[in-house]
Every structure is written in C-alpha cells, then in structure tokens.
Structure prediction request, 262 residues.
Amino acid sequence: MSRQPKLSVHDLFKEYDGAPVLERVNIDVTEGAFCTIVGASGCGKSTFLRMLLSQEQPSRGEILLDGAPLPEEPTPDRGIVFQRYSVFPHLTVWQNLILAKEFEQAPLTGRLFGSARKKARDEIGDLLERIGLTPATDRYPAQLSGGMQQRLAIAQALVKRPKILLLDEPFGALDPGIRLDMHELLLGLWRELSMTIFMVTHDINEAFKLGTRLLVFDKVRHDPQAPEAYGATITYDLPVDKTARQKKELAETLLHDRPDSA
Prediction:
C-alpha cells in the first residue's frame, strides 16, 4: 500500500474579480519533501503559498493535509517566512519568540505560567542555540544584521514546530555570502526536524541546490487579445537527484582545486 501524501492539491483554481491566476493545479507531496517553486513574476507562486497557509481560499478545487481538508484559517502546523522580516521591531529576540509561543499555547490569556512557561523557555533556548542566535537573545531586530533578522524570522516560524514550512523568497534581500550561510542553516533544520517545505525563489540555482523537487509555474494557454484570460499551472514537476548533483559538485570542486600540470 502506498503511503498517504502529506499534502494533496486537487484541481485547484484561483481567480480575483473574474481574472484567473491559477488553474488546474494538481500535486501530491510526501512528508519530508523540499519543494522549490520557480516561475515568472505574477504567475501565482505566492498566491499558492497563501492558499497552503489558508490566508486565502481556492475558488475551486481542494487542498488536503494528511487526507483531511485544509482548515479555513491558519493553524500552528503551518509556518511561513517572508522575504521581508515579519518580526515585532519593539520586542527583543527572546520576546518575539516567547510571544509566538504564548499565542499558540495560551491564545485567550496571552501568557504562560509555571511549568508551561519553563517548558517554553527551554524549547526556545534550544531553538536559539540551533539557529545560532543565543548571543543575540536580548537584542532588538534593528540591532541585528540582515542574516540574523532572517534567522529570527525562521525561528519565529519554527517555534510552533510546524509540519509544513512555507518560504516566500526568504533570502532574496540577503548578500550572497549570507545567503549561502542561510542555505546551510535551512538544510540542517530541514533534515533535523523532518519538515515538509515549500519555498518560492527566483534563483534557479538556489531552487536546485535546496530542493528535492522543483515545481515550475507558468501559463500553458495564451490569448493575445486577453492576456489575463487564463491562469498559470504547474508546467514542470522535476525530482532533484541530490546524489547526482552532489557528485557533480564534488567533481567540479576537485577539478577546480587541482594544480595546473604545466
């Protein structure tokens, strides 16, 4: 018997004011997959993420999580990280994370007490250590570098231990060197926490480097008289062979490092 997909999308359509954005989107994703999403601007990639989060609802079709219809409101089992840091600027690193924990576990009072607060403190301390922010615990976001602010945004999403992590161009505003550090951080967390990840990126190299599966969104139908008449869909769904890629990278590294024989 085949394993039930972690997330299934069936015949998904999305339109705004009668203008289609996405159409006929169908996909099954297994638990632990890392799906990178690429495509031209305006082809519905971020809209797709918002529907996975339940920030928006499909016009038609359905999304299933563990075989059940996706809740109509965002829930802690799905976290999201945007390109622009979505943290509270007036709170320290620690306060940002404890607030996220309190919203999850005590939505009515907004406070944790006793053993519940101690457990939350321990979990946050462990997360800060994993993500490399322990020295910045008492700093405010404005006192952090761009890379550290994005680490905080990722920590804020992970503090609720989501089953699915959604990333909307999370590294697009970072310098190349910092971006490489964030790649390693994200891959390490993905392996350690066994999350299912959907990540939108405009960088095709980043998509192949990070993903186990590459989804390309584009329009397959065009009307020159009415460019917005049709929506985009998944035009390519490519498995990324990590083993083959790693062998290629190793070969290129060895070739590059080999001294000239002249």
